[in-house]
Amino acid sequence: MGTEALQFGTPAAIERPRWTLAAYRNMVRKHLGHRAELELKSLAHKTWDIAPAEQGGVTPPAIFLPGQMERVTGWQEGLFFPYVYPGPTMQGGLPVEHGPTRAFLLKDVWLIEGALYKGNASQWLSLRHATFPPLRVEHEIERAAVYCSHNGNRWFGTWMMEDCPTYALACNEGTPVTTAPSARHPLFGQAPAYEAWLGMQPLRLRTAFFRELVLFDDMSNNRNRYQRYRDMGNKLLAHVAHAPHPGIFILRGSDGERRMLRNELALAEHLRVSRGFRVIDPMRMSVSEIVTACAGARVVMGVEGSQLVHGVNVLQPGGTVFALQPPNRFVSYYKFLTDRDGQQFAFVVGTPDGEGYTIDIDEVERTLDLLPA
Known about the structure:
Layout: E1 14-19, H1 22-31, E2 38-39, E3 46-51, E4 54-58, H2 86-91, E5 95-98, E6 101-112, E7 115-118, E8 121-124, E9 136-146, H3 156-171, E10 175-179, H4 191-198, E11 203-205, E12 207-217, H5 223-237, E13 248-250, H6 264-275, E14 278-280, H7 287-294, E15 299-303, H8 309-312, E16 320-325, H9 333-341, E17 344-349, E18 351-353, E19 356-358, H10 361-369
Parallel strand pairs: 2-8, 9-10, 9-12, 10-11, 13-14, 13-15, 15-16, 16-17
Antiparallel strand pairs: 1-9, 3-6, 4-5, 6-7, 6-12, 7-8, 18-19
Helix pairs in contact: 3-5
């Protein structure tokens, strides 16, 4: 896109080189053991609520057979908001409390190779691109809004379910900006097609100086965030013909962080025959083929991971996300989304098998029998 105008009738980015030691000052402070970095949002010139906090009701229980949680040997909630142990989350009955969606306006902020800097504060948007960050910044932007996140630049599922909904907020506040891809963090292969279908036109930058920059606190699953995600799903569905069908099994294979389900193909084929599930390998398909296959599914099933988002994007209220959980890496991230979106969350925990794990097919069948008709 270069420096094309995105909105506000002014160029999105002006080619105006500047020089800064912001990144090196940050490195020196850390090397000398100075006090912890300030949070960038603490230096905001102005803050405001985009959507209010919400309370009401209690969470539903997940759908699972007795004895499943006793198999869990490790969990990963430390990586995912709201950072709580999954046991009580699966049992349900917790009060629903969602925080507000907030915006923060800062002035005179530097973007240098995946990190934002202002004074003694910084915020990483991705892992460091290079050992020695550049001193020269190529672009100057009058007002921008960053919608990407560190986890979203690392995991496709987080990018799709968190960063993409925040893009809608960014469009209202400035030029939507994200970090440019690098050898360490290349652009997700299916991102351009999804962006085209969702009408996203971000400005990707390695370096920039922002006269005004808007950041967001958009982690709470309030109704505002729900509606933005539902709007995304409706945009995708508008591109394909669809009708209800029993379910979709989304293969993970060996893609992404390793969590090998040894009998994945056997389980997928069993469900294709016994339940009429469609089986897809998203790494071998176009976005058009993926959305067409997933649209209308009543159940979205597969190894817990980012690949499930292809089906979750278009899953309707009343549908079910069914996660096949590795025993050493239990994640309840999708449970928070199904609670928000009026869906069910079901799971089976596997048993260790060499470097991977296996899932009992009979347990999957019995858990499917527990789902609402």
